[in-house]
Amino acid sequence: AQTVTQSQPEMSVQEAETVTLSCTYDTSESDYYLFWYKQPPSRQMILVIRQEAYKQQNATENRFSVNFQKAAKSFSLKISDSQLGDAAMYFCAYKDFGNEKLTFGTGTRLTIIP
Amino acid sequence: KAGVTQTPRYLIKTRGQQVTLSCSPISGHRSVSWYQQTPGQGLQFLFEYFSETQRNKGNFPGRFSGRQFSNSRSEMNVSTLELGDSALYLCASSLGGPSTEAFFGQGTRLTVV
């Protein structure tokens, strides 16, 4: 069974600074997808960024980028120029190719310090 | 384009009762998945429906069931409620293809007393 591990329950960062959230996963599959979701106090899960395992290039979405290390099964999220609106729970998630089931990590609560 | 809509947003039920939660996916999405979120267990997959058929099921007791209608709307039912069923229930919809993304609703907060 696939597992996703987020070892940082809480992180904090000064506004405008950069922060990196860690995620590791375990799978025997070669084709899969990885995601970072954000869950603000409104509770709605919002997709931040996705990575296809077959792509070597790291995904980037504006201030958000990932460091995907397939051999190490590591998938970290870097948030640049942190903003107050970035404060939320961040979940790393895994999905097999051809399967809709998402396996989530336990989440990292990110606090932005003004 | 409307997002994923879950109703009701909040529910309070008594132990032993049953409850039905509803999820309306994004127009055109044929896959609907359900997740349970609790402080202790985190986010856990319940099941996924695609074109009215259950395609995948998580490790939950048979008290948890679901269905999907021809318009892709989905319902989740929990019978004989237990205190431990108190949770945020999240619904996600997607087109259902191999590389499609899941979009989540705001969830239904169920409290069992």
Structure explained in plain terms:
- Helix content of chain A is 0%, strand content 54%.
- Chain A contains no helices and twelve strands.
- Chain A starts with a strand and ends with a strand.
- The mean pLDDT of chain A is 95.
- Chain A has strands at residues 3-5, 10-14, 19-21, 24-26, 32-39, 46-52, 60-61, 64-69, 74-79, 88-96, 102-104, 108-113.
- Chain B has strands at residues 5-7, 10-13, 19-24, 31-38, 42-50, 53-57, 64-68, 74-78, 87-94, 103-104, 108-112.
- In chain B, strand 9 (87-94) and strand 10 form a beta hairpin.
- Chain B is globular and about 40 Å long.
- Classes of the chains: A mainly beta (114), B mainly beta (113).
- Chains A and B meet through strand 5, strand 6 and strand 11 of A and strand 4, strand 5, strand 9 and strand 10 of B.
Number of strands of chain A: 12
Oligomer: heterodimer
Distance between the termini of chain B: 37 Å
Helical/strand content category of chain A: mainly beta
Residue fraction in strands of chain B: over 45%
Order of helices and strands of chain A: EEEEEEEEEEEE
Low-confidence stretches of chain A: none
Number of helices of chain B: 0
Radius of gyration of chain B: 13 Å
Distance between the termini of chain A: 41 Å
| Biggest beta sheet attributes of chain A | 6 strands, mixed
- Helix percentage of chain B: under 10%
Q: Spell the H/E element sequence of chain B.
A: EEEEEEEEEEE
Total helical elements of chain A: 0
Percent of residues in helices of chain A: under 10%
Let me know the largest β-sheet of chain B: 7 strands, mixed
